[in-house]
Automatic annotation (TrEMBL):
SUPFAM superfamilies: Clavaminate synthase-like. GO terms for molecular function: L-ascorbic acid binding; metal ion binding; oxidoreductase activity. Residues 206-306 form the Fe2OG dioxygenase domain. Pfam families: 2OG-FeII_Oxy (PF03171), DIOX_N (PF14226). Keywords: Iron, Metal-binding, Oxidoreductase, Vitamin C. It comes from the Eukaryota. Belongs to the iron/ascorbate-dependent oxidoreductase family. Gene3D superfamilies: B-lactam Antibiotic, Isopenicillin N Synthase, Chain (2.60.120.330). Signal peptide: none annotated. The keyword Disulfide bond does not apply. The keyword RNA-binding does not apply. This is Fe2OG dioxygenase domain-containing protein.
Length: 359
């Protein structure tokens, strides 16, 4: 399959921006290209209450028969009411997590010259940096590395295989353990939704991507956005805040809620694909990342999507006269390409997929 194509921006000056390089010298002002006041809707004034109500799901309880039924119902309610939960007792080895943290930090501490060996190439979305679609595009206060890791046959030869060997080795270990967690969760979600197993097999041997992000401190965090508000195109996303610094916010009932996550928990959110396949029973979550004035924040996200040759649409086993399809059905390859040609803007792509929008 050919690379995802995005509109090209010919400005090498814009393409070469790095927030880490920007803050090497004291800033007297924030560059205009990073100022995003329009995206700074206030968060909840009662966020201290919300911090303790984010659903917590126990992975081990879903494995064992005597506790599975109750925990599966908790998972089902979390996905219907929140579309977001933290997963504890997930089984990812602490040594793997600690080594991964050190290696990701080490990667972002490499010289810009070293990191630019992995830079995003024109017309592509994978690599180091940010996808630039226009010269007047507002930029996030963060540096990223985005790579497709599965299927292995589709790994770009200049990206994952060329990473520093120690980072590549720990990522391989991490991805094996994370795939076990992610595919288990996907299976339980299908079970909770009562979707026929044959329809859920689209996730087997599916697409898996990772995104490592470094959010440097910002002297004026109220002016910038670490990650623009959006919902994920994936089925599910699993986020690991590797250095324990919080900054993620989710939008619930029109209110932005800051999350204070257990240090040993993984964050899992429902993506647009699962909202489509569940025909709206589960909701994808609009979320954003804020930055800190004093501390850097580092995270790694892993995205789970169906295989390229599958079709994405409401599961047939859920559709009947009382529950008609709310979303279009399209090929996975077209779905992904369309997503990457758009700027991140809340849940706009999901709205484009609704049957009421025929354009």
């Amino acid at each position: 399959m050919e690379s995802f194509q995005v509109p090209r921006c010919e400005s090498s000056e814009v393409m070469g921006l790095s927030v880490q390089e920007l803050i090497k010298k004291p800033l007297t002002s924030i560059p205009q290209s990073y100022i995003q006041l329009h995206n700074h809707e206030p968060s909840s004034l009662k966020n201290e209450t919300f911090r303790h109500t984010i659903p917590t799901i126990n992975f081990k309880k879903l494995i064992h028969g005597e506790t599975k039924e109750l925990e599966l119902e908790k998972l089902n309610l979390a996905c219907r009411d929140w579309g977001f939960f933290q997963l504890v007792d997930h089984g990812i080895r602490p040594l793997v997590l600690e080594t991964l943290k050190a290696e990701i930090e080490g990667f972002f501490m490499l010289s810009l010259e070293e990191k630019m060996k992995y830079k995003i190439r024109p017309g592509d979305v994978e690599g180091y940096g940010n996808v630039i679609r226009s010269k007047d595009q507002k930029l996030d206060w963060g540096d990223r590395m985005f790579i497709q890791i599965n299927p292995r046959s589709m790994r770009k030869p200049h990206l994952f295989p060329m990473l520093p060997s120690s980072l590549r080795s720990i990522l391989e270990l991490y991805m094996v353990e994370m795939e076990n967690v992610g595919m288990s969760v996907v299976g339980w979600l299908g079970e909770a939704l009562k979707i026929e197993k044959r329809e859920w097999k689209v996730f087997e041997d599916g697409i898996q991507n990772i995104r490592m992000t470094y959010y440097p401190p910002c002297p004026r965090p109220e002016l910038v956005m670490g990650l623009t508000a959006h919902s994920d195109a994936a089925g599910i996303t699993i986020l690991n805040q590797t250095n324990g610094v919080n900054g993620l916010q989710i939008k619930k009932d029109g209110i932005w809620i800051p999350l204070n996550v257990n240090s040993d928990a993984l964050l899992i959110n429902i993506g647009d694909i699962l909202e489509i396949m569940s025909n709206g029973a589960y909701k994808s979550v609009e979320h954003r990342a804020m930055v800190n004035s004093e501390k850097e924040r580092i995270s790694i996200a892993m995205f789970f999507l169906p295989k390229f040759e599958s079709e994405i649409g409401p599961a047939i086993s859920l559709i009947n006269s009382e529950n008609p399809p709310l979303f279009k059905t399209i090929g996975m390859e077209k779905y992904v390409k369309n997503y990457f040609t758009r700027n991140m803007d809340g849940k706009s792509y999901l709205e484009h997929m609704r049957i009421t929008n025929q354009n």
